[in-house]
C-alpha cells in the first residue's frame, strides 16, 4: 500500500498520521496481549502460578505503613518518646547536650 503524501493537504496528512498512530497502538496492545498469554502458558507448563513467580502483590513488596515502637523516652516528660528513626527530637538533643548518653534515654 503506497500513499503519495505529496498530494495530501494538511488536514489529510493529520488524518493519516492519527490513523497510523492508532493502528500502531492497536498492534502494540495485540503484541503485549500475545506475550502475556505466552508467559502465563510457560508458567503454567512449569507447574507454577503467576503469584509463585512474581509474588502476591504486583509491583514487589509493599510496606505496611505501621508505626514503630518507641526506643527512647524523655526523662523529664514520659509522654515524649522517639523511635530512633528520622530527625532527632529537640528534647533528645537537649538531653545529650546536658551530658546524658543515648543509652540513658533508652526505654
Series of secondary-structure elements, N-terminal to C-terminal:
HHEEH
**In whole angstroms, how far apart are the ends?**
79 Å
Mean pLDDT: 89
Radius of gyration of CA atoms, rounded to a whole number: 31 Å
Question: Which strand order spans the largest sheet, edge to edge or round the barrel?
Answer: 1-2
Number of spatially distinct domains: 2
Shape: elongated
**How does the helix and strand content classify structurally?**
mainly alpha
Task: State the helicity in percent bands.
Answer: 40-55%
Largest beta-sheet details: 2 strands, antiparallel
Strand content: under 5%
DSSP, total strands: 2
What ranges have pLDDT less than 50 throughout 5 or more consecutive residues?
none
Number of helices: 3
Secondary-structure blueprint:
Elements: H1 10-45, H2 50-54, E1 72-73, E2 81-82, H3 90-97
Antiparallel strand pairs: 1-2
Sum this structure up briefly:
By secondary structure, the chain is mainly alpha-helical.
Protein model, in words:
This protein has helices at 10-45, 50-54, 90-97; strands at 72-73, 81-82. The chain is mainly α and 107 residues long. The protein folds into 2 domains: 8-54; 72-105. A two-stranded antiparallel ribbon has the order 1-2. The longest helix is centred in the N-terminal third of the chain and has 36 residues, at 10-45. It is elongated. The protein starts with 9 loop residues before the first helix and ends in a 10-residue tail after the last helix. It is found in: Cytoplasm, Nucleoid. This is H-NS histone family protein. It holds the Pfam family Histone_HNS.
Amino acid at each position: 500500500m503506497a500513499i503519495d503524501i505529496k498530494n495530501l493537504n494538511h488536514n489529510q496528512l493529520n488524518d493519516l498520521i492519527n490513523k497510523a498512530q492508532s493502528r500502531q497502538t492497536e498492534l502494540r496492545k495485540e503484541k503485549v496481549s500475545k506475550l502475556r498469554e505466552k508467559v502465563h502458558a510457560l508458567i503454567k507448563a512449569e507447574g507454577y502460578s503467576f503469584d509463585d513467580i512474581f509474588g502476591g502483590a504486583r509491583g514487589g513488596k509493599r510496606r505496611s505503613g505501621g508505626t514503630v515502637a518507641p526506643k527512647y523516652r524523655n526523662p523529664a516528660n514520659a509522654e515524649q518518646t522517639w523511635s530512633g528513626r528520622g530527625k532527632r527530637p529537640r528534647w533528645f538533643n537537649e538531653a545529650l547536650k546536658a551530658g546524658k548518653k543515648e543509652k540513658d534515654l533508652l526505654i
